[in-house]
Amino acid sequence: MHESLMELLWSTSHFSGGNLEYVEGLFESYLVDPNSVSEEWRKCFDQLPRVSEAQSTDLPHSVIQEQFLQIGKNKFRAMPASSGVAVSSDHEQKQISVLQLINAYRVRGHQHATLDPLGLQKREKVADLDMGYHQLTGADLDTSFNVSSLFFNKESMKLGDIVSDLEKTYCGSIGYEFMHIVDTQEKAWLQQRVESVRSHPEYSQETRESLLERLTAAEGLEKYLASRYPGAKRFGLEGGESLIPMVNELIQRSGALGAKEVVIGMAHRGRLNVLVNTLGKNPKDLFDEFEGKKLVNTSGDVKYHQGFSSNVMTAGGEVHIALSFNPSHLEIVSPVVEGSVRARQDRRKDTTGKSVVPISIHGDAAFAGQGVVMETFQMSQTRAYRTGGTVHIVINNQVGFTTNRQEDSRSTEYATDVAKMIQAPIFHVNGDDPEAVLFVTQLALDYRYEFGRDVVIDMVCYRRRGHNETDEPSGTQPLMYNVISKLKTTRNLYAEKLIAGSVVSKELSDKMVNDNRENLDNGRHVAQSLVLESQTKMFVDWKPYLGVEWTDEGDTRYPLAELQDVAKKLTHVPDGVVVQRQVQKIYQDRDKMTAGALPLNWGYAETLAFATLLEQGYPIRITGQDSGRGTFSHRHAVVHSQKDGSTYIPLKHLSDDQPTLDLYDSYLSEEAVLAFEYGYASTSPQGLVVWEAQFGDFANGAQVVIDQFITSGEHKWGRLCGLTMLLPHGYEGQGPEHSSARLERFMQLCAEYNIQVCVPTTPSQIYHILRRQAIRPMRRPLIIMSPKSLLRHKQATSTLEDLAEGSFKTVLPEASESIAADKVKRIVLCSGKVYYDLINRREALEKDDVAVVRLEQLYPFPYADLESVLEQYKNVESLVWCQEEPKNQGAWHANRHRMNRVLEKLYPELKIRFAGRISSAAPAAGYMSVHVEEQEALVNDALVG
């Protein structure tokens, strides 16, 4: 029977809960006296490796084995050398019960912790935190039990002291959730840090005074703004003032641990306070914003969306702090921060995340409700997106806008339960206990540095003034705000505690308040350790990218001989890498393209663009769900050996000193991944940053990023970003979800030269536009409607000479030499794949009086280039815009007035008409037969209609 028990233990990775406690108890008993357990369990435990064996073997252990080994290590360490005497079975059973009680506190003590400053939180009684549940009674309180696995500085304690210390450790102002972590080392580390000081470390007088000073600054700013600008929205921090000393400690401790940069993301609540009291924004500048003075040459944004950066001095040296700009879309800033952090880490060649630390500050309702939180957690340990762990702070106001009932705001016990999906430790802490807040802050950051993983601090507090300062919160939360109206502030509670303990005098406490008020009155900086003259080496030099005109196209040519040399490197695969048959054919064809025996296709031209940029010193980052291979198998930049599954990337082996190439297949996310890449590109201006959608319409899962950051970030916040988006687009009968990249949405967002929207139709065009995006210093997002069927279209080809010479053409003229300009009576303007349908149908109809002109750049609209192409046609009788998309979609409505600016000048008597699908609620038909019929009709209409 023991064999089946062993098999169960070894194969069950989720062996936990009460069963695990029971087995652990039996194992503890076995370690003291093997005869105290049944023969079946004794045989089971006999087969476990001993501690010395585990240390000398390289064999992997299951979670259960590791759990037993840790118990064994603790037990053997605490056991006297002469220990071999059997303990009475009654006492041993009690010992097991004590260990079960200890484990219950570790697992569920948080449910009895005093977390709510308002005292309104109703907690159900947890049965297994009661001694009676474990068959322990008051008569056992004076009995000593082994606790070596609980407190590392004691071997045994009386049960009464054990319970008292467990309550102090796990049921005070802090509630811990870390027993869901499967890594034994991490749990042991956390238990040691928490239990060794019973969650109550002794802080020095200096530390306590500093805590009080930071609370004074936090409360002082809110009171000052309330009196000076009554009724103005500010999303104040009142009720959550402990955030300021928390963030201050994170920055100072990060610097002491070696960090050089800290990037912070947060939504509205407390943002102004963080700006002034942490980052050192001059209060006078904030007051000017309240008074409506324009400080920047942009459309601007409300005060509580603004970003900022500064430098502070720490024990480890100067640290640069950046607060990311954020729209009202709450959690969307979280992945943007991760992207910015990764860019900074890459710039510093920091692969462990020690030099740049991300801090994300959340609201409880948004943390529980927004899906991007889960997506951001999911990226935390992936190769493409990891940043060495993020410190998450939840400002838990215990209420959303007006939704305060847990059954309405979420389906989980805590707002932070989503973090358990990546086994992040979660520290719930009462915001009215500043010293407890300080302890979990230090614990969280140290954990992040020790294990390189995310950690969550859930600071339970409240909102003193409702959602914003114009709300009357008692209308929807009468009981809560009845309590809040009578509640002393966090700062006052702590000041009274320190005064009562003779840590500070009342005079010093009052002086802190008066000094803070005086500094605010005089518009002086109130942040601690602010460096007013920062080291410039900490910053990226954006000067080359500022004020660049759109007309600066950059030189995208590349000498033919050098291009051929690069091409040869791209198809070289070393011996030992067994290339899959179809991939081998692709690489062989590329050799022929290099030699001129075959015309260049799309995938090769695109790869050559990347290669030549790398050769010229431009770093490249490409991510997407199928970016290595390409969704449509056109790229194959990553070769997978059929022998052992290893990978080889020719683009990484061009030269010894080439810049970085990051090429990753992403996890299945659009919103968080696109936001990450935006954050990366807006922090790292040099080179090329590309996000590729699997299908273009998948980008609508990231619409918030497109609307709030990519298309408007420069105008709102002055943030330049050179991100490139590759969105497969084209009507090939694949149905409504795999046809359109929703071109019309991007066109609707075009204004003030904010983005570039292009639809290249030849390999040389994609080659030059990708190179242009990296080479020219103009940094604005590039949206490419990339093809699907054109990737292998026999007519969509170029030559190596096309790549070596020339540039990206915003307008491509009529390509057929048989179309004489003086005979042209009709001009058909179009973009994208439909061009090839049009010229092939024109040839079948033998029409030589129709010119087909391609708009390859839809925005910024190429007025001069279009006029230059069209002015040769003097005898035109009709003008047509042809598109595959329905009339209410595509580029027709957005660009009609732009086309007319040129057409009315050249052909004032003519009106351009539309040829395409009729308006439709869906992007495309779902039946191939309908698609073919519609396609033929719109092409015929454009040419002869």
TrEMBL record:
GO molecular function term, any single one: thiamine pyrophosphate binding
Cellular component annotations (GO), alphabetically ordered: cytosol; oxoglutarate dehydrogenase complex
GO biological process: glycolytic process; tricarboxylic acid cycle
EC number of this enzyme: 1.2.4.2
Keywords (A to Z) from UniProt: Glycolysis, Oxidoreductase, Thiamine pyrophosphate
Reactions that this protein is recorded to catalyse: N(6)-[(R)-lipoyl]-L-lysyl-[protein] + 2-oxoglutarate + H(+) = N(6)-[(R)-S(8)-succinyldihydrolipoyl]-L-lysyl-[protein] + CO2
Entries under InterPro entries matching the protein: 2-oxogl_dehyd_N, 2oxoglutarate_DH_E1, DH_E1, KGD_C_sf, ODO-1/KGD_C, THDP-binding, Transketolase-like_Pyr-bd
Gene3D superfamilies with a match to the protein in the record: 3.40.50.12470, 3.40.50.970, Multifunctional 2-oxoglutarate metabolism enzyme, C-terminal domain, TPP helical domain
SMART domains: Transket_pyr (SM00861)
Signal peptide: none
Location of the Transketolase-like pyrimidine-binding domain: 600-793
CC cofactor: thiamine diphosphate
Function statement: E1 component of the 2-oxoglutarate dehydrogenase (OGDH) complex which catalyzes the decarboxylation of 2-oxoglutarate, the first step in the conversion of 2-oxoglutarate to succinyl-CoA and CO(2).
Similarity comment: family membership: Belongs to the alpha-ketoglutarate dehydrogenase family.
PANTHER family according to UniProt: 2-OXOADIPATE DEHYDROGENASE COMPLEX COMPONENT E1, 2-OXOGLUTARATE DEHYDROGENASE
Quaternary data: Homodimer. Part of the 2-oxoglutarate dehydrogenase (OGDH) complex composed of E1 (2-oxoglutarate dehydrogenase), E2 (dihydrolipoamide succinyltransferase) and E3 (dihydrolipoamide dehydrogenase); the complex contains multiple copies of the three enzymatic components (E1, E2 and E3).
Entries under NCBIfam families matching the protein: 2oxo_dh_E1, PRK09404.1, PRK12270.1
Annotated protein name in UniProt: 2-oxoglutarate dehydrogenase E1 component
